[in-house]
Every structure is written in structure tokens, then in C-alpha cells.
């Protein structure tokens, strides 16, 4: 499994292209002409997956119960909006217009390495999110890892 990390300030050009930094392209093992999938992410961001990670996510989703309304809604929205994009010769991908609009992307964006995928956020919204969450990092970590000292 790949491990993606880091925060990269980027610019979205008029054609909605964003450059993927060389270090991330190497971690993604995605050469020029390679494909990524751009999909709706959480917290109004966009998620970018390699074909391998997108297939792995699809396997996890396929294992969920199709009788659950939330699973059906997720699969419909996620897959109908997800699009395959190609990495051009300059290491850029073009963000599909409907997804750029969904995430309210403007010229200044930030590309985040988040474990097995990348996230693309408008810079201002990412800074606001980080300002809200970072001071609560310990509390968030304890909750995420099972509630800290509960039961100890």
C-alpha cells in the first residue's frame, strides 16, 4: 500500500488543470500519460485515486449491503460523478468542470497527501478546516483510535 503525505500549494489554471508535484507522482507510480480518478471527497473536497486504489475502494464498496439506503446513495453519487483523467506531459491533470464546481475550487488550491489518495481543496477552505481541527488534534486522535483512556 502506498503512503501519501504532505501539503502542496497549487494553482488551478483557466483550463482547470492542476500540477501534481513530482514527489507525489513518484509515490503514485503514475507516469506521464497515466490515469487517475477524480471523485467527490469528504468535507466538500475532491479525492484523486490511482487506478489501483480506485479498484480497491470499489471492492470495499461492493462488500457493503446494497439494501442500505445510505450505501445506495453513496454509490450512485460517487460513481456517477467520478471521472478518469490523464496525467499530461507536464504532470498536470484537468479537473472535470462539474467536480471543480462541486468543490467550489478557485485559482488557489491545496493538494494533500492523505494516506492512499490525494485531496484537492480550495486553499481558503483548507486553511479554515485546519484552523478548526488542528487545535483539537489530541482529542480527535483519541476518538479515532478508540477513545483514549476509556476503560483503563
Describe the structure.
The chain has 6 helices and 8 strands. By secondary structure, the protein is of the alpha+beta class. It has one domain: Chemotaxis protein chec, CATH 3.40.1550.
Furnish the topology, listing elements before pairings.
Blueprint: E1 7-11, E2 17-19, H1 22-28, E3 35-40, E4 46-50, H2 51-62, H3 69-81, E5 83-86, E6 92-94, H4 97-102, E7 108-114, E8 117-122, H5 123-133, H6 137-144
Antiparallel strand pairs: 1-7, 2-6, 3-4, 3-5, 4-8, 7-8
List the main descriptive attributes of the protein structure presented here.
6 helices; 8 strands; Chemotaxis protein chec; 152 residues
Task: Report the CATH superfamily.
Answer: Transcriptional regulator MraZ domain
- Order of strands, main sheet, comes to 1-7-8-4-3-5
Helix content: 25-40%
Structural class: alpha+beta
**If you average the pLDDT, what whole number results?**
91
Oligomer: single chain
Provide the number of structural domains. Answer: 1
Based on CA atoms alone, the radius of gyration comes out at 17 Å
What is the CATH class name?
A: Alpha Beta
The CA-CA distance between the termini, in Å, is 33 Å
Beta content: 25-35%
Amino acid at each position: 500500500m502506498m503512503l501519501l503525505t504532505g501539503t502542496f500549494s497549487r494553482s488551478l489554471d483557466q483550463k482547470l488543470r492542476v500540477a501534481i508535484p513530482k514527489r507525489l507522482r513518484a509515490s503514485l507510480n503514475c507516469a506521464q500519460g497515466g490515469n487517475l480518478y477524480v471523485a467527490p471527497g469528504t468535507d466538500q473536497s475532491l479525492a484523486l485515486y490511482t487506478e489501483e486504489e480506485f479498484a480497491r475502494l470499489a471492492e470495499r464498496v461492493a462488500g457493503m449491503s446494497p439494501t442500505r439506503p445510505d450505501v445506495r446513495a453513496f454509490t450512485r453519487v460517487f460513481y456517477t460523478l467520478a471521472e478518469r483523467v490523464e496525467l499530461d506531459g507536464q504532470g498536470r491533470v484537468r479537473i472535470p468542470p462539474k467536480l471543480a464546481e462541486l468543490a467550489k475550487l478557485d485559482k488557489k488550491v491545496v493538494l494533500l497527501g492523505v494516506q492512499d489518495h490525494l485531496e484537492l481543496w480550495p486553499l481558503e477552505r483548507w486553511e479554515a478546516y485546519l484552523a478548526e481541527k488542528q487545535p483539537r488534534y489530541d482529542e480527535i486522535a483519541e476518538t479515532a483510535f478508540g477513545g483514549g483512556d476509556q476503560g483503563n
